Amino acid sequence: MDRLEQYADENNIPIMQKDGILFLKDYIEKNGVKSILEIGSAIGYSAIQMASVNPNIKIVTIERDEIRYNEAIKNIGKFNLDKQIDIILGDALETEISSKFDLIFIDAAKAQYIKFFEKYKSNLADGGVIISDNLSFHGLTEPDVVIRNRNLRQLVGKINKYKDFLENNSEFSTEFFDIGDGIAVSKRN
Ligand code: SAH
Ligand code: MG
After folding, report:
1. Within its chain, how far is the Cα of 20 from the centroid?
2. How remote is the CA of residue 40 from the centroid of ligand 1, in Å?
3. Ligand 2 centroid to 24 CA: how many Å?
4. What CA–CA distance (Å, rounded) separates 68 from 66?
5. Could you tell me the distance, in angstroms and rounded to a whole number, from the CA of residue 56 to the centre of ligand 2?
6. What is the CA(176)–ligand 1 centre distance, in A?
7. pLDDT of the residue at 148
8. Fewest CB atoms less than 10 Å from the CB: which of 26, 49, 141, 182?
9. Where on the phi/psi map is residue 32: left (φ > 0), alpha (ψ -120 to 50), or beta?
């Protein structure tokens, strides 16, 4: 696991922060989560962490970057988790998944979070939950932060839009946690 964290660090791969992953694993354990859909596998780090909570957990994870996808396959194999983790190479916005999941974990392109949420909410099992990562985006989503870079400012604007979307959603209720890089837990009303 340390090697994965080091590889991610050296190659600028934004894997989940340690306290964020602990929060996620704790949630999975306490709520008896058995099936997980992850949007954004990167090198498989979070999927491996989540699968290791319990051998009965099944994960489907989607990654669009072929290099990361191949790295993830390698890592999942090293941890002997191929039976628990199914990785799909493709754009999650164009992937069709028919099964339902206890937990949907959104951790891919931050500008597309509303689209991921709208597309995959129908894959949520009864009593299931959608968890989204990176909502504080290194603290940049705070109202008083001035961002000079235009692209970054637009991205942060989109994350704030997603937060508004969750706060004003009539179908789901969301709790925000200041853990890791900011985590939202959304449940259907
Ligand atoms: N969940 C991982 C980190 C994911 S980083 C962990 O914590 O270990 C985000 C990943 O999402 C990147 O590897 C990126 O290539 C992928 N991604 C971004 N947009 C995507 C999309 N539309 N479909 C599939 N993967 C996407
Ligand atoms: Mg993340």
Report:
1. 11
2. 3
3. 12
4. 5
5. 24
6. 21
7. 86
8. 26
9. left
Show the ligand 1 pocket: residues with CB < 6 angstroms: 14-16, 40, 42, 45-46, 62-65, 68, 91-93, 107-109, 112
User: What is the token pair recorded at 78?
Assistant: 């090293």
Task: State the amino acid at position 65 in one-letter form.
Answer: D
Ligand 1 atom nearest the C-alpha of 112 is 22
Residue 24: predicted pLDDT: 97
Domain boundaries, the chain: 16-188
Strand order in the sheet with 183-188: 85-89, 58-63, 35-39, 101-106, 124-133, 183-188, 172-177
16-188 belongs to which homologous superfamily? Answer: Vaccinia Virus protein VP39 (3.40.50.150)
- Which pTM does this prediction carry? 0.96
Task: Summarize pLDDT for 19-28 with one digit per residue, the tens.
Answer: 999 999 999 9
Mutate to test the pocket of ligand 1, among 45, 46, 65, 155 (most ligand atoms within 8 A of CB): 65
- Whose atoms come closest to the Cα of 21: which ligand? 1
pLDDT per residue as tens digits for the range 104-145? 999 999 999 999 999 999 999 999 999 999 998 878 888 888
What's the chain's average pLDDT? 95
Ligand nearest, relative to CA of residue 65: 1
In ligand 1, the atom with minimum distance to the C-alpha of 95 is 23
